Amino acid sequence: MLPLPSRILASLAVSTALFTVPALAEIPNSLNLNGTTGLIDMPSGEAQEDARFIYSLAVAGPITRATISFQFTERLSGSFRFQTWRNWNELVPDAPEKLTDKSFDIRYLLLKESRYLPALTIGMIDFTGRGLYSSEYVAATKSFGDRLKVTAGLGWGRLGSYGGIGAPFGDRPPLDPSDYGTPNTEQWFRGDAAPFAGIEYRINDNWTFKGEYSSDAYVMEEDRGLIERDSPFNFGFEYQRGPMARYGIYSLHGSEIGFAFHLTLDPKTRATGGVMGAAPTPVKARPSRTADPDAYDGEWVSQPDAGPVLRQNLAKRLAKDGIIIENLSYTAQTVQIRIRNGRIDAGPQAIGRTARALSHVMPASVEVFEIVPIVNGIGASKVTIRRSDLEQLEFAADNATLLRQKVILSDAGPLAANAVGDDGLYPKFRWGLRPAFRLSEPLKGDVGVRLGASYDIRPGLVLSGSVYKRLFGNVDRSGEYSDSDLPHVRSDSSRYTKFADPGIEKLTLAWYARPAENLYSRVTLGYLERMHAGISGELLWKPVDSRLALGVELNYTRQRDTDGGLGFDEYDYDVVTGHVSAYYEFGNGFIGQLDVGRYLAGDYGATVSVDRVFANGWRVGAFATVTDVSPEEFGEGGFDKGIRFSIPLNWALGNEGGTSLGATLRPALGDGGARVDVDGRIYNTIREYHGTALDTEWGRVWR
């Protein structure tokens, strides 16, 4: 008789041949209780669609899992999971009531499914953790028609703990506590390997049945008496609610009931289908020169009130789009307008609206429009558009592409000597009271209110601050001192959460300038963030048409008091930090960054990060920092690493504006590799109006 795993695979093959069903729409790639592509407990060989962002919440008996996953490319995906085991102290009274674990997963699609071959994926679960869930696997999935999918695979680690067939690559060494948080490479694909298998059958457009044979013996949970694993078979039904939400209910191990909720978001599209806002004004075409030669007479420039009148008329037209005119300069043939975009989330759309307004207001002799977006009081770039191109291409097929081919993008350059400003723009005071949300882990965060204010003294010189008051939440507010051997530059964060409520988050004076062509500078002085105060300076080299940018930053900081006021920590810790940075745009929204220098705890090292930025404002990335701090000194996690994301609220709401919801998630918050969290770092503020980023959303220039 065949062994049990072989009998399962054989029965799956027979059942495949028996299914003959009517055609349905393409089966979406579903998710498992770990929040990754798979069956119920087991992974599958498929991948999600490129750029899918997924939040999953699953309850499996005494285990709760919250996972954030992102499909970085068509083949590569990563996940961050926060997991708790409830009633962990049932058999050991002195143990904590809950055991929590945070882990990273990674998987790569080796082979896409074809007519004869299955999709094939290799993956690792909890590959830098404490080994509680560490697993490696190879999984293959084949579709038969549009209703049935069959998966078979081989797992190691936890996925090799039941029904093993031997250790083809040698024994799996135990994980030393000193290695927690670092890649456990010596364990990868070592130890017993065990097969797993399963099916996914789509009943109709909403309902799906799943069944699997699991190779996870749940040894740890059974030893604790948390789970009675009576069977390796799991079964369940899932309900698809629209394109984003999926719900599941499962029978697990022959003894438990499980539930899951998956929310799948697509950063490439907008949940509302588009951004709502005022319709654009059509381009106003000039009369031909032969029909009205007087219209092209440039004598109007000699009129003393021409500048104020033109500026006033332009300001009225642009006000409905939230665009403010900083300066206006002109000759008989050329106009340069410097604008501040306060509401529209796409730079090209703001540029297009400005160009249309110029076509209505500027005399016919003006052929060249120079539009300079202003960010933090400094020119980010100069977009030069010929008026005749606007007139000719407005109704042409593929008009955005044709216009971009004719537009010239260059350095903003200095402000013209004859520029007409507005005495009413500066100084300017603004304030707001808004709800605020802080997310520290997939299942932990708090909700509060933030009072913020800013005072624009003059272009590039801004006084700003904010106060935060927590209303409710479940983040750590113990107020206990950290036992870190390093200066407590981050590990005492729970004390700031507890005692700085309400507390001053920041209170700074920032100065932004353009020292020379392609150079941008920032100096920020004051209470830079809730834990550190001081002075921060930055210089960035970034040509508008270059994928490469280089920067240097130098900071002197003192640690603030935990009460959130204006005082300083009793240990009076101060430090000089600094970094040399390189940024590179690889295309398709991917931005790499390398920072080398000294960190807040006095350690030296480097940070590597990769972010994927989307045209609609989404941003998802991962980072890792390695310094001369040893894993033992750093503590849990071994070194600083994590994922970060930012979701613009207008993506979901469809309105205009720049408010975002985001977080940085780490397995552990240690003192090593920490940088001061100062607002307004230059690269991300000016990049929107430079070549690659501007081109990504250039299609909105006519909207």
Task: Please give a structural write-up.
With 703 residues, the protein is mostly beta strands. The chain folds into three domains: 4-265, Porin; 293-424, GMP Synthetase, Chain A, domain 3; 428-692, Porin (Beta Barrel). Helix content is 13%, strand content 41%. It is built from eleven helices and 31 strands. A 13-stranded antiparallel β-sheet has the order 19-20-21-22-23-24-25-26-27-28-29-30-31. Strand 23 and strand 24 form a beta hairpin. Helix 3 packs across helix 4. The protein is globular and about 90 Å long. Residues 1-23 have low confidence and may be disordered.
Q: What is the gist of this entry?
A:
The chain is mainly beta and 703 residues long. The strands form three sheets. The chain has a 13-stranded antiparallel sheet with strand order 19-20-21-22-23-24-25-26-27-28-29-30-31. The chain has a twelve-stranded antiparallel barrel with strand order 1-2-3-4-5-6-7-8-9-10-11-12.
End-to-end Cα distance, whole Å, is 69 Å
* Share of residues in strands: 35-45%
By secondary-structure content and strand pairing, the structural class works out as mainly beta
Count of all domains: 3
- Largest sheet at a glance? 13 strands, antiparallel
Helical proportion? 10-25%
What is the total tally of β strands? 31
Q: Can you tell me the CATH architecture of the largest domain?
A: Beta Barrel
List low-confidence stretches: 1-23
- Give me the Rg, rounded: 29 Å
Mean of pLDDT: 88
- Classify the fold: give the CATH topology of the largest domain: Porin
What's the CATH class label of the largest domain?
Answer: Mainly Beta
